[in-house]
Amino acid sequence: MLKVRVIPTLLWKNLGLVKGVGFNSWRRVGSVLPSIKVYNMRDVDELILVDINASQDQQAPDHDSVSDFSDECFVPLTVGGGINSVDHIVHLLKAGADKICLNSAAYDDPSLIDRAAAHFGAQCVIASIDARQMEPGRYECFSHAGTRATGKDPISWARELADRGAGEILITSIDLDGTMQGYDLRLVSSITQAVAIPVIASGGAGSYQDMVLAVKEAGASAVAAASMFHFTEQTPAEAKRHLQQAGIPVRRNFVETD
Q1: Distance CA 35, CA 32 (A)
Q2: What's the pLDDT tens digit per position in 44-60?
Q3: Which of 120, 143, 153, 204, by CA, is between 20 and 30 Å from 161?
Q4: CATH architecture of structural domain 5-245
Q5: 181 to each of 48, 52, 103, 156, 204, how far by Cα in Å?
Q6: HSE of 113 in the Cβ direction (CA atoms, 13 Å)?
Q7: How is the chain split into domains, by residue range?
Q8: Would you tell me how many other CB atoms lie within 10 Å of the CB of residue 80?
């Protein structure tokens, strides 16, 4: 089993960080640079930074800001929001991003996944799926920060994204986002069973045990969280310690205590 990663998610909007519930990201939770500096010291494996404005308003990525952020980020940095061309990816990688996260643009132009993987390698491409439960057992993918229904089924869409060369799938439950009630294990499991690439569970984490369940019961290769780290005393280092105590391999960059 590959070592499971713990990944804080930073939602960036109008120069600051925000978080809400169900993709209604209205609550200010600080600034990007100070948060990155804190996470540098908190044993995270990676960071995901998503520009919500760019996602919703179809703006180009802010390469200059990403360059500033990456200068202070000492862990692998994934950047998403507004990316709709290979040129955008080139500029973001030059600005210091280690990976890119594609969501909305892939629905309009699925071949962007193919081109990105061919140019930069599958390990650089995370395909993001935001899904809402429409009725018991049936989910639908949404784009543009959860504001537009696509008519696509997450399982078949995940398979297509993997076939086109995505290196990982980030699956987020819109319904549970920000609730801290636990991941949608059924949704995560449906994706991990459908593809042979790593799957990052997102949306709903509220405790270390939620992360254990996402790995052990739903097969996630990594766990992402935002509210859990913003609004509670729980930390990435303790999350990794809890995962390890549950028999899940993690990168042991935290300090052992008795």
Answers
A1: 5
A2: 999 999 998 776 667 78
A3: 204
A4: Alpha-Beta Barrel (3.20)
A5: 21, 23, 24, 26, 5
A6: 26
A7: 5-245
A8: 26
